[in-house]
Design brief:
Blueprint lengths: L20 E5 L6 E3 L2 E4 L6 E8 L5 E3 L5 E3 L4 E4 L3 E3 L4 E6 L4
Antiparallel strand pairs: 1-9, 2-8, 3-7, 4-5, 4-6, 4-9
């Protein structure tokens, strides 16, 4: 069986202030290996951010400390490798959706 690997950006945009905002859902019959998650605060104010992984049908598990302060103009990158199966989610929220 051949393995097909594709490098791609899985999500772009803006975190919502709504808890458990879905950033990425692993498609059916797919395994996703996440090597980097990067967040950038493009606002002029410090914002708090949260990131989670939720296995299909499971409970969300925090993957960064709770309410990380992300200063204006700064970025946050995770260097942890996460393996997601079909239906698994990456979710997050921020103190403001602007």
């Amino acid at each position: 069986m051949a393995n097909n690997f594709t490098t791609k950006i899985l999500a772009e945009g803006q975190l919502s202030a709504t808890p458990d905002f879905t950033l990425y859902t692993t498609p059916a019959l797919t395994t996703a290996i996440i090597k980097t998650i990067a967040l950038v605060n493009t606002d002029s104010s410090t914002r708090t951010v949260n990131l989670y992984i939720r296995k299909s049908g499971g409970t969300s598990r925090r993957i960064i400390p709770k309410d990380v302060n992300l200063l204006a103009g700064y970025s946050l990158e995770t260097d942890e490798v996460y393996t997601l199966g079909s239906g698994d989610l990456i979710t997050g929220d921020a103190s403001s959706g602007t």
